[in-house]
Write a structure and sequence with these properties.
Protein name: FAD-binding domain-containing protein
Keywords: FAD, Flavoprotein, Membrane, Oxidoreductase, Transmembrane, Transmembrane helix
Cofactor: FAD
Helix content: 40-55%
Organism: Diplogelasinospora grovesii
Radius of gyration: 32 Å
Strand order of the largest sheet: 5-13-14-15-12-18-21
Shape: elongated
Strand content: 5-15%
Largest sheet: 7 strands, mixed
Domain FAD-binding: 6-172
């Protein structure tokens, strides 16, 4: 096939159209671009954000250096309330995005990006201006575009890249309506507008720091500013909720008078306490006002016609995703065209083959484009505090949200389209959150499916509760309390009824304390060995729970509340609550949460304090229960240990606020995402060694009878007396506690295996290693070692589909030289 045997007509010379033109030119595919305006890079007044997903494609096309020259990377991001006061600490969001993907997030004038794209096209004769589409005709062999100036252009494909009010889409609807009337009718209702937006460029503003981005939250209003690094200009936008939702055909257009009225209504919005939007307006050198349209269309193609960019997936401005989504769609279309022509080896494609590539194009982009639209619209409503949840989030959760928005943007970028036929830029393969076509928006693992898969863990919790609490054990404990003494064959001690001087609490804890007296006072020797080992092993569980609570991947989840789980476990038994915790953890921690190495990272300030806190709050009271020389005072230690979750959490807070441990999170997440790993290995390894030592000591003192120490022989409720009940209850409690933890580890190992991160270790080897460790070192040590092994995998290995320097050759891609 010669160069001119296949021709693509591109309608529209915006971001999507110019990107597609470059994609086709570099693939050697003939095209003509028709732009209705009189120039390819008009001044439209709007800014545009280029995220790593767009930057990677632009670098493949050779535009990246031009992009770097024009765009303004952000440094620090701030959130503000309606009075300009900060909401939470600032974030170095751009530094994190750069570390994750290899590209900084850059913002600049849309006109300058259009110029970069237009200048990148070598054969300018193929880009025609003043060519407004008037009509479209298609046959089984070709498609023809008739322009308003009387000219006509024929080709094999027509790609509409002409924006949200696409003339190409309108003509495609007219052609498709007889065959798909319901689909066309649905799409005509898809576009809506609930917000208007003002774009401005201000000069000479001194109150803002260069490179800073400020976001301002107000009920029904929103403002964002970005201060240029090189010329101190401020690019800003203001959004306002409209009185009603407008559909296609009724969306308003604004005049200069409308803009003045808008500023009178919204000039009071404070960017900072000493700076309002009105102040920026008085120094504005360029502005534009429009509506913020939203639209997800179902009909992207018909026959030889397809649409890309805003014409089929229109985002709002808040996420800054629209331009990048348009670049991706252009790349996806080019991929499918090039793939078809390569497969045909010079032959002319048939009408059916053309339709097939159109369908493949749509399918390759539909899920991601829809997800990006949804994320964009959700963020718009959050920024404007649209509903009750949005208001609640901004006021109570946003101050603690950290990189919530950055993570949302990261999910939008990671699964991005690339140009399959051009080499991958080296910088795109070196980030801590590699691009991965099987992850991100639209491809997230279903939480419902994970809950269904995890039902065995929930089932263990239900079985444990029903087996261990078939009868209320408290009456037996209270019967002993009534005697005033704890009596055994060789001695007795008075019962301590109060400790905290809080009536209901002392009454509850005194009753619970009775269940530990057979082991504490050694009138049940087997129970003493079992409980001593159990509480030592529990230290590993506590360490794991608290480390998981300060992990970045578990931010803003219930897993941040280990004290709550541990307190409930003190009431209902760890055997009931541990499987429940594991069930929830499995649902909330899919492997996709660890696509970025920094998501595995824990907060070093807290991580360094966890072991001292666990020693102070758990180990010392637990061993005091068994080893304190004054027998009567051992009950005081039981009172303390019963509330160990409170003491561990209190010690953790005091230690982290003492200044002993530095907060290095801002540096770690960008430059050292594995800095915590040696500390974790040392701390958890210490508790593992202690648990193994106690396990081996138990074997040494009980010989082959050790198994009788740990294996329950009957149901607690059928045993008479508190000694027999306690003996069986605590054995079952240990069985269900670690049974749930081991099932949980198997599920987590399954995630790693599915992701191809542990292909060198078979299931047989993992299970055999665990069984040997369980016999030789005990359940606590086995749990700790298994958890540490997974931690090392998360820190050092990547998903099988991640695009890294190590994987690209295996996956069949070439790498572009820097």
């Amino acid at each position: 096939m010669t160069k001119h045997d296949f021709r693509v007509i591109i309608s529209g010379g915006g971001v999507a159209g110019l990107t597609l033109a470059s994609c086709l030119e570099q693939a050697g595919v003939d095209y003509v671009l028709l732009e209705r305006r009189g120039e390819l890079a008009p001044q439209l007044g709007a800014s545009i954000v280029i995220f790593p997903n767009g930057a990677r494609i632009l670098e493949q096309l050779g535009c990246y250096q031009g992009l770097k020259d024009y765009a303004q990377p952000t440094k620090w991001s701030y959130n503000h309330d309606s009075k300009g006061r900060p909401i939470g600490p600032p974030t170095n969001a751009n530094a994190l995005a750069t570390a994750r993907f290899g590209y900084s997030v850059a913002c600049g004038e849309r006109q300058r990006l259009l110029k970069v794209l237009a200048d990148n096209i070598k054969d300018k004769s193929k880009c025609l201006v003043n060519k407004e589409v008037a009509a479209i005709e298609q046959t089984s062999d070709s498609v023809t575009v008739k322009c308003a100036d009387g000219s006509a252009y024929s080709g094999d494909l027509l790609i509409g890249a002409d924006g949200v009010f696409s003339r190409t889409r309108e003509q495609m609807w007219a052609l498709a309506e007889p065959e798909f009337p319901d689909l066309v009718a649905s799409d005509k209702r898809a576009l809506k507008a609930e917000y208007n937006v003002f774009y401005g460029i201000a000069d000479g503003v001194t109150q803002l720091v260069r490179g800073d981005m400020d976001t301002c939250f107000h009920p029904g209003r929103y403002a964002m500013t970005l201060t240029s690094i090189d010329d101190n200009r401020v690019y800003y936008c203001v959004e306002e909720r409209l009185p009603k939702s407008y559909g296609l055909g009724e969306i308003p257009r604004y005049s200069a008078e409308d803009t003045e009225a808008f500023m009178r209504r919204n000039g009071d919005i404070r960017v900072r306490p000493d700076l309002t939007i009105g102040d920026l307006w008085r120094k504005t050198i360029f502005s534009k006002m429009a509506v913020a349209e939203e639209g997800k269309f179902k009909l992207w193609t018909y026959g030889r016609i397809a649409c890309v960019g805003d014409s089929v997936h229109k985002t709002t401005l808040n996420l800054g995703a629209g331009g990048n989504a348009a670049i991706e769609s252009a790349a996806a279309m080019a991929n499918n065209i090039v793939h078809l022509l390569h497969m045909l080896h010079g032959k002319k494609p048939t009408a059916n083959q053309v339709r097939e590539i159109m369908v493949r194009y749509h399918e390759s982009r539909r899920v991601r484009a829809d997800a990006v639209c949804d994320s964009s619209w959700q963020l718009t409503r959050l920024n404007n505090m649209h509903g009750p949840f949005d208001k609640f989030f901004v006021r109570f959760l946003l101050p603690h949200a950290g990189e919530f928005i950055v993570d949302q943007v990261g999910d939008m970028m990671i699964g991005a389209t690339k140009l399959d036929y051009l080499p991958l830029p080296k910088r795109s393969l070196t980030g801590t959150k590699p691009f991965n076509p099987t992850q991100g928006d639209g491809q997230k693992e279903s939480k419902i499916m994970r809950a269904l898969w995890g039902l065995p863990m929930l089932g263990l919790a239900v079985v444990a509760f029903n087996l261990m609490f078939a009868e209320d054990p408290l009456p037996a404990a209270k019967a002993i309390l009534d005697t005033g003494k704890i009596v055994w064959a060789t001695g007795s001690v008075p019962i301590q009824y109060t400790f905290y001087r809080i009536g209901w609490l002392d009454e509850l804890l005194a009753a619970l304390n009775m269940f530990f007296t057979p082991s504490v006072y050694d009138y049940d020797a087997l129970s003493r060995s079992q409980v001593f080992s159990f509480l030592t092993d529990a230290g590993v569980v506590i360490m794991v729970w608290y480390l998981e609570s300060v992990r970045r991947a578990n931010h803003l989840t219930i897993l941040q509340l280990p004290m709550m789980f541990a307190l409930v476990a003190q009431l209902f038994g760890a055997g009931v609550i541990c499987p429940l915790y594991c069930f929830l953890h499995y649902i909330l921690s899919p492997i996709e949460n660890f696509s970025g190495t920094d998501n595995r990272l824990t907060k070093m300030k807290y991580t360094l304090a966890i072991l001292p806190a666990v020693i102070l709050g758990h180990y010392i009271p637990a061993y005091g229960m068994f080893l304190w020389p004054d027998l009567a005072d051992r009950q005081k230690w039981i009172f303390v240990w019963q509330l160990y979750p409170v003491y561990v959490s209190l010690a953790l807070q005091l230690l982290t606020r003492s200044g002993l441990f530095p907060d290095t999170m801002d540096e770690d997440k960008v430059h050292a995402p594995n800095r915590d790993l040696p500390v974790i290995r040392t701390y958890v390894g210490s508790t593992v060694a202690l648990s193994a030592a106690v396990w081996l000591y138990t074997w040494y003192t009980n010989g082959l009878g050790t198994w009788t120490v740990f294996i329950p022989t009957s149901i607690p409720s059928v045993i008479g007396g508190i000694t027999g009940f306690t003996s069986q209850f605590l054995r079952w409690d240990q069985v269900f506690t670690f049974g749930g933890q081991f099932v949980w580890l198997l599920y987590l190992f399954g995630d790693i295996k599915t992701a191809g991160m542990a292909d060198d270790v078979s299931w047989f080897k993992m299970v055999l290693s665990g069984a040997v460790s369980l016999v030789a070192l005990g359940p606590g040590a086995t749990l700790g070692l298994g958890w540490l092994w997974r931690e090392g995998i998360l820190a050092t290995r990547r998903h099988k589909d991640a695009l890294t320097l190590e994987s690209v050759k295996r996956l069949g891609f070439t790498v572009m030289d820097d």
